[in-house]
Amino acid sequence: MQIGIFAKTFPGTEPRGVLSAVRDSGYACAQFNLACCGLPSMPDTVSKETIAAIGAAVEATGISLAALSGTYNMAHPDIAVRRSGLAQLAVIIETAAALSIPLVTLCTGTRNPNDQWVYHPHNGDPSAWADMAAEMSKALKLAERHGVDLGIEPEQANIVTSASDARRLIDEMGSPRLRIVLDPANLFEQATRAQARVIVAEAVEISAGHIALAHAKDRHGDGRFATVGQGVVDFADFIARLHSVNFDGPLVTHGLSASEASGVARFLKALI
Predict the structure, then answer these.
(1) What's the pTM?
(2) Across all residues in the chain, what is the average pLDDT?
């Protein structure tokens, strides 16, 4: 299991500098974001020069890219917004393929029109699932064409809120290209350490065989997000359970400051 970090944890718009910071903080891989190249996270185009610069940074630093962010609101109530997001996702998928990045991470969306990470009471409506599933079907056609996997993350504010939802979507889509990104801190809003352990254990079991990437973010019992090791998530148990279902992919931390990165790397390495 490799330890990784969100590349955009570190400041900078030059990929070699950002990936050097990843390496120097003790990580072997990164989840990349095109903001680290001075582009929007979801650009309309990515130049050959930018792709070459990212590739050169990977070679120079030895940091592998585990995933590329491709998040847009796949359940936005405005179809024009969804159409624009899908066009940008096509650019992301093509970029991932050009760089041999195996996974593009997605957001299954929300009916909130202003923020793709904010809950909306209409998220549970069948129409919200149907719109998201229609987007996912289109996205998978792009992924299959370019040989890239897509990762969906259960998230309380989004349409897919649980590992069970993720498995339902995978079954509906019927594509081996659709995988799960499992973040234990996104599986609940508020919980004690014991309650969180049960929730996370169940999610790992349900997701077994479908996890492409695990995230390492923590949460306080009152719902506030926290740096790994400072909340109620039992990371020793989480990692052990990932091992028990034969997950050997990247474990990528985020939701921390650059100054905390080295300490979190040491914490996670000690558990692995």
Answers:
(1) 0.97
(2) 97
